[in-house]
Amino acid sequence: MATEAEIKKALRKVKDPELNLDLVVLGLIYDIRIDGARVDVTMSLTSPGCPVAGQLLDQAREAVESVPGVEHAEVELTFSPPWTANRINPTIRAALGL
After folding, report:
1. Domains in the chain, start-ordered, CATH in brackets?
2. What 3-state class would DSSP assign to 79?
3. MIP18 family-like domain: from which residue to which, for each copy (predicted)?
4. Is the backbone peptide bond immediately before 90 cis, with ω within 30 degrees of 0?
5. Per-residue pLDDT, 97
6. What's the pLDDT at 59?
7. How far is it, in rounded angstroms, from Cα 15 to Cα 96?
8. Strand partners of residue 32
């Protein structure tokens, strides 16, 4: 069975094209639920009007499904609570000038 750490490592390969930072660093991953070979991820976007939303969701699902032991992944999009830059690691946020 996959671990949350393995899932996060896979999700770090998916980058926001505007900021060139991964989903985990940006704080866009809200929840990871592992049930045997199935993984459900709840994530957000930096903006509800993100033009590449579908692409990011597909990339996130593919990344999770690439983890050994994962047979099926679902990625759900949420805006509750809305994403803010405060979800980014403080060190990285400072480096970005946010």
Report:
1. 4-82 (3.30.300.130)
2. coil
3. 4-76
4. no
5. 83
6. 98
7. 16
8. 41
Question: Is the pTM above the cut of 0.90?
Answer: yes
CB 57 within 8 A of CB 94: no
Q: Contact at 8 Å (CB) between 19 and 26?
A: yes
Look up residue 7 and give its two tokens. Answer: 């899932």
Q: Which two tokens stand for residue 32?
A: 């990871």
Model pLDDT for residues 12-53, shown as the tens digit of each residue: 999 999 889 999 999 999 999 999 999 999 999 999 888 999
Distance CA(39)–CA(46), nearest Å, equals 23
Closest by CA to 40, choosing from 79, 88, 7, 6, is 7
Tell me: pLDDT of 98 over 90. Answer: no
Partners of 72 in beta bridges: 38
Nearest-10 Cα torsion for 5, 7, 13, 17: -110
Residue type (1 letter), 82 = P
